C-alpha cells in the first residue's frame, strides 16, 4: 500500500514540480558553484508543469532600448545542415503583463521565491518558502477546462471536501522516509477549475494548509513581477514561464526539437570553461556541450539553450546569436 502511494505521489509530483532547469537554478543559488574545469553535461529540458491556470496575457510592444552589443566574438560557431532553416532573432514582446485570474488572500509565510508557468488556457504560480519552515511550497493554479491531473479528481483515492460551500476533492500522499507530505486540492468555480498543491513537513496525512489557502483565495487578478526580461528570442518563440529569478521562452509545439531558451539571474556560479565573452560589461564564458549551449556571467546571468536534437529542419544558434540574446537580457 505504501509503495502504491509513493508511486502515485511521484507521478503526481512530476506534473507539478518546477522544470529541471529551474531545479538546477535553485540548487545553484543555494550552493556556491566552484566546480573548476568541469563541463556541464546532460540535456536541459524545458517542460511545463501541468497544474492548470487561466491566464490573461495582454501584449505591448513598447520595448525599452537595448544596449548595443559589446562582446568578444568567439570562433568556431556551429553551422546547421544545408537544408536547415536559419535562425532569425526578433524582439521579444517587451512589456507583457502576466496577469493571473486569482490571487492568494492567505499564505503560510512570506515567499522566498515566486515562479509561474504559462500555457494557453491554463497556468500556475508557485510560492517557495525559506528553508526551515514547515511549508516548503504552495502552487495555485486555474484552468479553463478539467485539469490534467494524475490521478483525475474522479479517482476513488480522492476524498470530498468543502471549499466555501463549493464541493471539492483532495488527495494527500506521505513520504515517511523524508518526513514530507503533499496535498492536491481541486474544485470547480463556475466554468473555471482551481487547484492548490502544497508540499509541507509532516508524516500524518493533512491538507490543512491547502484548504486554508483555497478558502482564502480571492477572485482578483494578480500581476506577477518580471525581474528577468529577455529582449531577443528566436522567431516564433513565446514566453512560457517567468518569476523572480528566471524567464523561459519556448518554440511552438511542433518545433520542440529546437528547445526552450532560459535566462536567470546567477549570483554564484563560477569556474566554468569556455570561450571568454563580455556581456553588458560583465566578463563571462560561452560553453558548448553535445546537448546545450550556455553563457555564464558570474554574479549576473546564466543563459542556456539546448541544441537541436538532430532535427535537420532547424539550424542551431551560432555563438554570435547567443551573445546577441545575452546582450538583450535585462535584470532588475
Task: Walk me through the topology.
Blueprint (H helix, E strand, L loop, with lengths): L1 H15 L3 H11 L24 E2 L32 E3 L6 E3 L12 E7 L2 E7 L6 E9 L15 E5 L2 E10 L4 E10 L2 E10 L6 H8 L6 E3 L3 E2 L2 E3 L3 E6 L2 E5 L10 E5 L9 E5 L2 E7 L3 E6 L3 E6 L12 H10 L1 E2 L1
Antiparallel strand pairs: 1-3, 2-13, 3-11, 4-5, 4-14, 5-6, 6-10, 7-8, 8-9, 9-10, 12-21, 14-15, 15-16, 16-20, 17-18, 18-19, 19-20
What does this structure look like?
The chain has 332 residues and is mainly beta. The chain contains 4 helices and 21 strands. The strands form 4 sheets. It has a 14-stranded antiparallel sheet, sandwiched between helices. Strands 1-3-11 form a 3-stranded antiparallel sheet, with no helix packed on it. A hairpin with a 3-residue loop joins strand 18 and strand 19 (292-297). Residues 1-81 have low confidence and may be disordered.
- Per the principal axes of the C-alpha atoms, what is the gross shape? elongated
Number of strands: 21
Run of helices and strands: HHEEEEEEEEEEHEEEEEEEEEEHE
Mean pLDDT: 74
Number of domains: 2
Structural class: mainly beta
Number of helices: 4
Q: Report the radius of gyration as a whole number of Å.
A: 21 Å
What is CATH's topology name of the largest domain?
Jelly Rolls
The main sheet orders its strands as 7-8-9-10-6-5-4-14-15-16-20-19-18-17
| Ends apart, CA distance between termini | 49 Å
What CATH first level of the largest domain would be assigned?
Mainly Beta
Low-confidence runs: 1-81
The profile of the biggest β sheet is: 14 strands, antiparallel
Q: Kindly state the percentage of residues in helix.
A: 10-25%
The percentage of residues in β strands lies in: 25-35%
CATH architecture title of the largest domain: Sandwich
Region (Disordered): 62-86
Biased composition (Low complexity): 69-86
Amino acid at each position: 500500500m505504501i509503495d502504491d502511494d509513493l508511486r502515485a505521489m511521484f507521478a503526481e509530483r512530476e506534473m507539478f514540480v518546477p522544470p529541471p532547469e529551474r531545479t538546477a537554478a535553485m540548487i545553484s543559488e543555494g550552493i556556491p558553484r566552484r566546480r573548476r574545469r568541469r563541463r556541464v553535461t546532460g540535456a536541459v529540458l524545458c517542460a511545463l508543469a501541468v497544474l492548470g491556470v487561466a491566464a490573461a496575457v495582454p501584449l505591448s510592444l513598447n520595448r525599452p532600448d537595448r544596449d548595443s552589443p559589446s562582446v568578444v566574438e568567439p570562433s568556431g560557431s556551429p553551422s546547421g545542415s544545408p537544408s536547415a532553416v536559419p535562425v532569425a532573432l526578433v524582439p521579444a514582446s517587451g512589456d507583457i503583463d502576466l496577469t493571473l485570474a486569482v490571487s492568494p488572500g492567505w499564505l503560510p509565510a512570506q515567499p522566498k521565491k515566486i515562479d509561474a508557468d504559462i500555457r494557453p488556457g491554463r497556468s500556475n504560480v508557485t510560492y517557495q518558502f525559506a528553508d526551515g519552515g514547515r511549508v516548503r511550497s504552495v502552487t495555485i493554479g486555474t484552468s479553463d477546462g478539467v485539469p490534467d491531473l494524475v490521478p483525475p479528481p474522479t479517482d476513488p483515492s480522492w476524498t470530498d471536501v468543502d471549499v466555501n460551500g463549493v464541493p471539492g476533492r483532495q488527495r494527500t500522499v506521505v513520504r515517511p522516509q523524508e518526513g514530507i507530505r503533499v496535498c492536491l486540492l481541486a474544485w470547480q468555480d463556475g466554468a473555471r477549475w482551481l487547484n492548490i498543491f502544497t508540499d509541507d513537513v509532516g508524516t500524518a496525512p493533512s491538507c490543512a494548509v491547502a484548504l486554508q489557502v483555497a478558502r482564502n483565495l480571492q477572485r482578483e487578478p494578480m500581476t506577477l513581477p518580471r525581474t528577468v526580461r529577455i529582449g531577443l528570442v528566436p522567431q516564433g518563440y513565446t514566453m512560457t514561464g517567468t518569476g523572480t529569478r528566471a524567464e523561459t521562452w519556448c518554440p511552438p509545439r511542433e518545433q520542440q526539437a529546437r528547445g526552450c531558451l532560459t535566462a536567470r539571474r546567477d549570483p554564484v556560479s563560477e569556474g566554468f570553461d569556455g570561450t571568454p565573452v563580455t556581456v553588458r560589461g560583465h566578463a563571462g564564458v560561452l560553453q558548448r556541450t553535445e546537448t546545450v549551449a550556455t553563457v555564464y556571467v558570474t554574479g549576473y546571468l546564466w543563459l542556456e539553450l539546448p541544441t537541436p536534437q538532430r532535427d535537420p529542419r532547424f539550424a542551431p544558434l551560432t555563438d554570435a546569436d547567443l551573445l546577441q540574446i545575452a546582450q538583450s537580457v535585462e535584470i532588475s
